[in-house]
Amino acid sequence: MNSRDSTASAGSTGSTGSTDSSGSTNSPLRQEPVPRDEAPQFVLPLVVRIERNEPPSRTDALETAARAVVLMLSDARSSGDGEWAARVRDWQDGRIRKVVRRARGAEWRKASELPGITAAGGGAEVRVFPPVPLDGWPRELSKLQVSGTELEDRGQPVGDAGPGCALLWLNPGLHMSTGKEMAQVGHGAQLLWWDMDEAGRTAWRDAGFPLAVRTAAAGRWAELAARGLPTVRDAGFTEVAPGSVTVVAEHPVRH
């Protein structure tokens, strides 16, 4: 299975993918062809640490990947005159692509020396790097494997999260590799961040970006998909059909 070209092409209204939560037609996740498709395309690299004898659980990896994405988006280096800001803007001017690769041992240590942010949660570690051109990956990252990122849970995560915790719901009708799922929940976390007002962002950031990833029951999925929540529709380059709704995201419940 392949998590390459895992591209969000959804608006945050959960409808056609052509608008953001304010009704703007300029959402970076529009589905229709737009001039940004002709712009230089960038990708957000994520690397998950998978040691041979101690791999993380699937849910820990998914939640940590989603948190890594919002850590990058909220970092001061990603906005204004920050050192990563130009690359983040270039990335968001094109299609929103994320690629998940895996590393262990010396590979992980070399990757960790590159500029980026490491998120940790449970038994998982995921490092996110500033966006790079599709054909301009650093050598230390380009040689890492994309395929084979399959993880399992050691027990079934159950229940919703508590107050202040965002929920990212996976479509129960789709089968995706763990790497693909990591990219999709990263898209969902990004949509949530864009959909929040400043007070919501501050509260979520100050709490450490608590979030949970769950696979919805079939009946619950239908209800979630109909609520107009931030929704990820996949471009369909790998694993699922174009336009497939992969993730629905619920805002944190404020105290």
From TrEMBL:
It comes from the Bacteria. Keywords: Hydrolase. Residues 1-25 have a biased composition (Low complexity). This is peptidyl-tRNA hydrolase. Residues 1-42 are annotated as: Disordered. GO terms for molecular function: hydrolase activity. It holds the Pfam family PTH2. Coiled coil: none annotated. Its EC number is 3.1.1.29. The lineage of its organism: Bacteria, Bacillati, Actinomycetota, Actinomycetes, Kitasatosporales. It catalyses: an N-acyl-L-alpha-aminoacyl-tRNA + H2O = an N-acyl-L-amino acid + a tRNA + H(+). InterPro entries: Pep_tRNA_hydro_II_dom_sf (IPR023476), PTH2 (IPR002833). It is an enzyme of class 3 (hydrolase).
